[in-house]
Amino acid sequence: xxxxxxxxxxxxxxxxxxxxxxxxxxxEMGLERVASVANNIGLLNSPSKIILIAxxxxxxxxxxxxxxxxxxxxxxxxTYASPHLIRYNxxxxxxxxxxxDQYHVDAFHLLEQGRKDTQLTxxxxxxxxxxxxxxxxxxxxxxxxxxxGGRYDATNIVTPFASxxxxxxxxxxxxxxxxxxxxxxxxxxxxxxxxPAIIGDLNIPHTMTDYGDEINANMVLSGSDFIxxxxxxxxxxxxxxxxxxxxxxxxxxxxxxxxxTTLSVLNLLxxxxxxxxxxxxxxxxxRFQQLSEVPLVFTDVAHNPESARYLANKLSSYVDKGFKIxxxxxxxxxxxxAGVLKEVSHLVSQWSVASLGGPRGDSAENLNxxxxxxxxxxxxxxxxxxxxxxxxxxPQQKNDTVLIVFGSFFTVAGAINYFxx
Length: 421
Prior knowledge:
Blueprint: H1 12-22, H2 32-40, E1 49-54, H3 59-71, E2 77-80, E3 92-94, E4 97-98, H4 101-115, H5 122-137, E5 141-145, E6 162-165, H6 173-176, H7 180-187, E7 196-199, H8 206-215, E8 218-221, E9 226-230, E10 234-239, E11 242-247, H9 253-265, H10 272-280, E12 289-292, E13 296-300, H11 305-320, E14 324-329, H12 337-345, E15 350-354, H13 364-374, E16 381-383, H14 386-393, E17 401-406, H15 409-420
Parallel strand pairs: 1-5, 1-6, 2-5, 6-7, 7-8, 13-17, 14-15, 14-17, 15-16
Antiparallel strand pairs: 2-3, 3-4, 9-10, 10-11, 12-13
Helix pairs in contact: 3-9, 4-5, 7-8, 11-12, 12-13
């Protein structure tokens, strides 16, 4: 990794290599360092209205839904998401479009000038860089996805116009705790006094609402204040006097309902016709994304039990149509492998596992062991990489089989790159 500080004329790759080398840890929770740098360069006085989005799953799809609905009304929108699948530029969008490298280079150069001796992690650089770009572009609304938890995440230095919680489940236990109550309390840290706080989870832990009551947040709760119900091909959404029946989008209906409620609370909800048009065109990379029609291949970032349950629901519709499921899993070492695999195992007739490279990647052997612990799966095929697995699987895949490649953003990126080549 480079030790030399890049310049404003350096490439984005040079800057990203440098950012990875500045801080000894990938994650360092806390807001003081990040807020200090943000104040030094005036990032916290932007006129944009910020919607802060936290949750174990569903942040990206909720943000994409909000983005579409706001853009359809003529607002300018900046969106920050992580991690990326293929290239860093995916993390920051202006009006649903990625930006040229130079925008990111300019932002990182500004941060390097303003941070002085303060160390920042890669994610903190990315967050502040996004805020710098949004201020530069003077967008009307910023959709800011929380990276990890909420209370001590770098994104939480802002003053939100509204806070949104999508779902609450166990992930990153070493940072957030090993119960839903602990996770919920941490995520509730993005709430602010007298500020809308929309919670889309279907079983909200009391620690979240207790904290919201304590600070007098204006909470709007799924299941009581707003309700959604799924039917075979549609879902209904009710909030106050609103009662709409909408076609199921390509994202979870729960997240669409949360996004609709958020905009309604903020008096930003478009007409029913615009809502239907936006939901019909929604698509999010890496979320049950079809990579091939013949053979039939999908990929999904599901990497914790909750997201695996949603994936299982999608796969079950193909099982009902008579398809067999071949699953190719590759995961990170710090994830609940057995918990994830168990959620889909009852649908899978053939398993393959692959190793993921990098310092956090897990081995095919460990995935194989996890599978053996939760099912009687036989004849599991192991591969050294996702690409090697696809080389071996695709030539033999039959027309009555769906291949699902899942387990991590890295897994999805490997699958997407394979099919692009």
